[in-house]
## 1
Amino acid sequence: MPRIIRHIRRDIILAAILASLAVPAMAEVECSTPMDEWKPIAALRAEAVKLGWTVEKIRADDGCYHVKATDSAGKPIEGVFDPQSLKLLGRSDEDDEKSGDRDKPKSGGSN
């Protein structure tokens, strides 16, 4: 194999590995704010709109707010927000992560 192709392959693999490390995995994100300190869902919805999202569903899971939405280009997106600061903690733009369990609210969450 020519040397240039080996370098290109190596660079592509390295870039893919670094890209996967740049965004925290949504499954690992957990929040610990007591529910009486959570900001209201309406405030979270407004925060998501500021990001250019059209909100489809908001639920609570692992102590965080989870938002299912579409971005400004109409692509599916899911975000995890800290319930006290409403800071975006993680996001997934992949529409292949859909499953029946992800859409069901857990412990205290609803639209």
Note: The CA atoms of residues 61 and 106 lie 6 Å apart.
## 2
Amino acid sequence: MSSESEISRRRFLRQASALTAVSAFSSIWLPSKSFASLGGKTVAANEKVNLACCGIGNRGGEIIRELYNTGLANIVALCDVDMGAPHTQKTLQMFPNVPRFQDFRKMFDKMGNQIDAITVGVPDHSHFPITMMAMALGKHVYVEKPMARTFNEVELMMKAQRKYKVVTQMGNQGHSEANYFQFKAWKEAGIIKDVTAITAHMNSARRWHGWDTNIKKFPDAQPIPSTLDWDTWLESVQHHDYNKDFVNGQWRCWFDFGMGALGDWGAHILDTAHEFLNLGLPYEINMLRADGHNAFFYPQSSTISYKFPKRANMPPVEITWYDGVNNVPQVPEGYGKSELDPNIPPASNGKIQPTTLNPGKIIYSKDLIFKGGSHGSTLSIIPEEKAKEMESKLPQVPQSPSNHYKNFLLACKGLEKTRSPFNIAGPLSQVFCLGVIAQRLNTKLLFDRAKKQITNNKLANALLVGPPPRKGWEQYYKI
């Protein structure tokens, strides 16, 4: 390690230790007088939910349209750091008379009393401040997956939800579809039991594949587009000079901004297994493969082993995650074809490219093997002969009463409970945060589940919190 790198490492450890002393895993402090603990207001059954939308292009725009199409929401405010960008225009044209903002703080200052709930469809690093401010103001929150970029941010979001008692939903939309109800029914009927291993895989091409992995620094500064509020885009992350490879989906490539393939697709592949097998947090995370590892962006291929302990009468489980085009896991005999569910949306960089194995999982139990896809895709028993033998024993699976978006809005009205609230989605998101730390450092981590600390690596433990927030954004983290 170079002397410059060692100095930076020591400085980071000092800063992170100081931040840990004031923020780690305890009650939050939000100092602004406007941050009164209001509690989430239940919207009357005969009224629509007044929805403010943070992030209105790309995935953010899709969320807005899905929620609006339920017929249960009024769109009362639109917020995006770049209202002039081409990808925002479809949403702006749909709601031409709705007030517009580039800074969510100004939106809340001006319209807070007109807002019941918000959507957060912005880059991973931006989820936390928006969500924390909204909850403290008593606003219900629909936030895209993963919940946040760091383990500590997720921890604080869960604590804030308990404190402010608002409705929350993470946007892993398959968690309200057939995948959810089938896994729940099969687990309760004893069809899924004694699971010991899960293979999870996402082998499509990603945005950073093919980049120069000998990178020594971030990309050079470029002129900031005149329509973009770059300072607000950065939010609490330490300053980076603008570059086109940080925005419009490219943020997912970088450790400083996004969560890579694991954070992007993990919540669509492992959500039901994590919830219904009561996995919680792992005690060991180990990098088994990290092709093209570097200090700035995600590897070209990753294999990550997670080990979870015995829970009640359920045996220990090892989950092995595979990403990378040429990092396809072996499948068991009798696996059959790897079908791509047409309901699975494309990857953020376009269509899912055909591979030998489409995104999904293989679940190994004592007596049965299951294969499944991503999002709302259901499981099947393999091989086919075993599936036919089990057919008469399978329970009836109920239909979903509401999709993920309608479920959130009905919960805001007190008519349903959300299926992916922060107490469910938070530990799942933290599993991915731990995996990202292992990817970043390319090492094995030992994790104390009770103390929520990494015990074998000081730098990795500091990364649970991450660098201190940028000046002006401390209020979202302090006790």
Note: Residues 1-5, 18-38 have pLDDT under 50 and may be disordered.
## 3
Amino acid sequence: MRNLRDYALVTGSYWAFTITDGALRMLVLLFLHQRGFTPLELAALFVLYEFFGMVTNLLGGWLGARFGLVRTLLAGLGLQIVACSMLAIDPALLTVAYVMGAQALSGIAKDLTKMSSKSFVKLVVPEDDRSRLLRWVTLITGSKNTLKGVGFFVGGALLSSVGFTRACLGMAGALALALVVAAWMLPSRAGRMGSKARLSSVFSRDARINWLAAARLFLFGSRDLWFAIALPVYLAASLGWSFSAVGAFLALWIIGYGFVQASAPRWVARTTPGGEAEVRGAQLGGWTLALWVPLLAIAGLLYAGYSPEAALIGGLAVFGVIFAVDSALHSYLIVAYADSEKVAMNVGFYYMANAAGRLTGTVLSGAVFQAAGLGSSGLIACIGASAAFVALSAGFCLPLRFAERRRAAFAS
């Protein structure tokens, strides 16, 4: 029961953070677009967010192993409070450099919180209970994305109702409450290796983790290449959607995406002779390549002049289902591959690749969209680049499959 209680507390803290993270991203994106920022400037706002996410995942895994996962979780919540508070000033003072600084803190906060939460699952599930590990990892991953979607909706709604400054202050207060509860109730030494945790150990020697990380980089780069900047700006500027409508649409997509992730075990898990549910890396390549179907369909329909709303709504629904299952497989596999003693460092290294993909995708989303035109032509160009990233991600799944087979043969 203690394990279940700790899992619930960590998950609840992660949920509180995730809502504010999604809301803050939507608030910054829509509010500063309203103030005349270009797509490339908007992309620049998130460069440090993603860059420091890379650094944080690399070093955060080591910090979690050295000082404990609860401390890195609390540090993430605290930094997000600072980031929200920094933005709660006179909007006239919000420059690109200042917002980039606040977003850098938010990026550090996000990845400290995510690394801590997902690593913690490995500590509360028995080593040989693969079925429970699969269920609990997909639950925390799927619910996180569902609540990030809620955050998108909250961000758009708050911007329309109470304004940017009050929204940031309210989120800082909610996070402060979550921080106090987590600090009071969670065991402080969970996941701690102490002085045995060496910084050089953050780089994995497990070929499975390295190939999985490479596939993850291009997978998330493919999503953010058109989803991070191009899509919301296109909906607001070209289709004339209101801020609330853009926030609600992206929120519903992320919510549905999260529900699919949480239910992924029923879709993809195979039953072993011992009756356990199991997922293997060999399943990733097919799910990744399947993303071409909705991407090419959306681009083709937009090019042909078909209704943009119908093409995007239908195409995004299919893309969301496939991407959610693919992402859930990834999230389970990294926790399953991770060494129990080095789980924070293994997971941190992997999510460094995730942040690198998001950084690359976000920058290219703004740059390609602006270079190719701010209308349908720009969005089509971003989708084409996304399809190329999908191919690269699927390509890295092949050596992952061989590495997994070699590992299984060695273990037997």
Note: Confidence is low (pLDDT under 50) at residues 271-277.
